[in-house]
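User: I'm putting together notes for a lab meeting next week and I want to include a structural view of one of the chains we've been expressing. I don't have a solved structure, so I'd like a prediction I can at least talk through. The sequence is below, exactly as it appears in our construct file.
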Amino acid sequence: MARNGPEMTEIISSASNQLVKRVRALGDRRRRQREGAFVVEGIQPVWRAVAAGWPIETLLVAPDLLRESAASAMVAEQEARGVRVARLSKELFQRLSDRDSPPGLAAIVRGRTSELKTLEVTPGAVFAVLHEVGNPGNLGTIIRTVDAVGGAGVILVGDCTDPFAPAAVKASMGSLFAVDVAHVRTADGFFDWVREHGVQVVTTSGRADDEHWSTEYRTPIAILLGSEGDGLPEDLIDRGDHCVRIPMVGTAESLNLAVAAGVLLYEARRHLVGSAE
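Assistant: Thanks for the context. Below is the predicted structure for the 277-residue chain, given as C-alpha cells.
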C-alpha cells in the first residue's frame, strides 16, 4: 500500500488486495448471484446509481484519474454519509477497467430485480419483454432504450442473460438504475400476468403479415421479442394479440435484437403520443 496526501489516505496499489480480488470475482455470474452485488464503472452510471438510491457497498476511486470536480465532490459527500470509499492507484484502476480511457470512478452496488407482480401497470405503460435473450450487451442497450422512451420496464422471460453482467451494465449507461427489470421463469407466468392486468401483447416475426407501423397499438402494451438466434417460438407468437414484422428492403436477413427493439418501442411511442393529442 502507498499513502498519499495530507491526511495520509491509503492508496491501494496491489492486485492481491482482497477488495481488488472481489471486484475481479464479480465478473462471474455465479459470484454476483451468490453475493447480490455487481460492479459499475463510469462517472454517469455511478452517479445515477447514487441518485436513484441503490445501495452502494463501495466507491472505487483513482484520484489521479478522476478529474471532474463535481464527481469528486459527490464521492466526498457519500463518504461523509458513511459509504466506504476505496482509493486505487492509477495503474491498478487501469488494469481493472475495461475502458480505453478509464474515468477513475467505479462502484460495487447491491443488485436488485423486481418481481413481475410488483411492476406498476399504468394505462399508458409500455414494456419490453425479452424471451431467453442471451447477449448482455443487447439487454443493456434495450434497457437504455426503454428508459429513453419512458417505458415502464423490461421483463425477462425464461433463461436469460444477467442484467448485472459487466457488458449489460456498461451498455445501459446508467439506465439500469432507472428502469424496473423483472424476471419470470416461464412464458405461462408472463401470460397470466398480462391477462390479469389487461396488457396487449405484440409479438414479432419476420413472417408476420402486418408491418409494425400499420398495427393499432393500445396501452398498456408489452412488446415481446425472442432470442438473438432463434427469435420467438411459434407457440408464443400465437399467444400474442398481434404479430408484426419490421420491413427489410436491403440484403440483410435480420436486425440486431436491440435495434429491432428500438424500432418497435419508438413506433409504439409515436402511436401513443399521437393518439393522446
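A couple of points you could mention at the meeting. Residues 116-276 form a domain with the Alpha/beta knot fold (CATH 3.40.1280.10). The first strand starts at residue 2 and ends at 4.

User: Perfect, that's what I needed.
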